[in-house]
Known about the structure:
Bound molecules: acetyl coenzyme *A, 3-methyl-2-oxobutanoic acid
Low-confidence stretches: 508-515
CATH superfamily of the largest domain: Aldolase class I
Amino acid sequence: MDSLRMIRIFDTTLRDGEQSPGASMNVEEKVMVAKQLARLGVDVIEAGFAYSSPGDFEAVRRIANEVEGPTICSLARARPEDIDRAWEALKGAPKVRIHTFLSTSDIHLKHQFRMTRAEAKRRAVEMVHHARSYVEDVEFSPMDASRSDPEYLYEVIEAVIAAGAGTVNIPDTVGYAVPWEFGGLIRGIRERVPNSAQAVISVHCHNDLGLAVANSLAAILEGAGQVECTINGIGERAGNTSLEEIVMGLRTRRAFYGADTRVNTEEILKASRLVSKITGMIVQPNKAIVGANAFAHASGIHQDGLLKDKTTYEIMRPESIGLVDSKMVMGKLSGRHAFRQRLEELGYRLSDEELNQAFERFKRLADQKKDIYEEDLESIVSDELAKIAERVTLRSLHVESGTNQQPTATIELSLDGQVVKQTGHGDGPVDAVFRTMAAMTGTKAKLLMYAVKAITGGTDALGEVSVRLEEGGRVVSGHGSDTDIIVASGRAYLNALNKLAYWASKDAAGLQKVSLI
Ligand SMILES: CC(=O)SCCNC(=O)CCNC(=O)[C@H](O)C(C)(C)COP(=O)(O)OP(=O)(O)OC[C@H]1O[C@@H](n2cnc3c(N)ncnc32)[C@H](O)[C@@H]1OP(=O)(O)O
Ligand SMILES: CC(C)C(=O)C(=O)O
């Protein structure tokens, strides 16, 4: 086989992915995801948009300083104050990039930016120069490129490369492109922009018409050298190009594409589960690569073939994305040393305090559940690592429900250090828990989503509950796990309330009303 081109994977789960409604992550959660992205071996992590909020600034700063391996990038509008802020967050870290953007389509320039083409080109060049005054590695995106006049687009690209942009990223911002057309646009850039070989041509596609992955692959065939993508394809509106589909598409058909990536594919499933858990965005069972059914063969003829030879119906090995038979890892009698070692084998390094808390949870779980699997440990650890300062915690929960009985919950909480207890009712046991907790905390938050899933098989499986709450325009997700799904639901609800309180304390320097009494 001729030598393969290595396509750079630019992960934007923490920036565009976070633009999915309800997917906002706190700083600890972002650092956790970034560490998993580093284990996955992506080339660039877009850690946030430093100017957009203090939380994003802090996430970019911490990830740039704490995550080793990938280049860490911040988005910035084509404005000096955005670029200055990106630099403030990135400075001092070893491998950093500033990604600045400005639209090139007449629709955007006329209606949103109220700029002429000449003004936009001048601003793009000035801002690339400005970013280059701070860092070597500058990326420029002509937003809405796929709806721009190609002749003007080529001019802008030539100018920003001359100004020092090492990567030019072509966004299909509204998911309008068609693969043949989008591939043609990349070919046009390579053929018509005289200095295009001096920069990496990247693509950033949205999935409004379900074509983000197809458009990105078409671009690779025409010479794109970087793909921007997100874990599970999350992102603004219908989402972005899904990282796992691009990476496994190239790995599985690399002879066809003549290209591959440096991604350690065995970390894909772990990354997918982590992002799903943290954002509360559940992966559909039939989702390519990471869906629960992606490697499940249900029909007799397929099973017959597989038993005779796996290649009959399997184009990828499940192990290649990290899907292995759940290993029973620990039990009730395991000690702290074995626990730490097992976590390290799974890729988690915890501080002594985090380890002690996770170990306590593990022991409680081991009392309720005979066999503890890798997924159970991951769930416990990600809960512990993602913890934010908690204003409200669960002390006890008792629920009565059944036929001919109004579901009743009696709950004891610690609220800002005070113990409070209350009994309340609801339409079902979970509703009774949520209503009682809402009454106790005084929250006006609206429940947008409730979902429960079993982490491992069996009726003693750890149940994982995700909720999404909205209050004052802010949407957060909360997660909780327990062998009792009512308790898991209560934990998830409180986790979301603590996040609302966390964001309220960050917003407007804490001026927004915090709804916990
Ligand atoms: C396609 C994408 O995904 S782009 C990234 C989208 N991400 C986000 O928007 C992140 C969250 N956004 C925010 O927190 C806020 O929008 C902020 C902090 C960035 C800006 O907030 P505000 O100053 O209140 O401005 P607001 O959001 O209302 O309007 C955006 C302004 O930025 C301008 N703008 C938008 N994109 C760019 C750009 N690439 N370069 C320069 N200016 C831009 C708009 O023209 C508008 O300017 P105007 O006020 O002069 O009309
Ligand atoms: C900032 C750019 C790359 C973007 O997110 C888009 O155009 O969708």
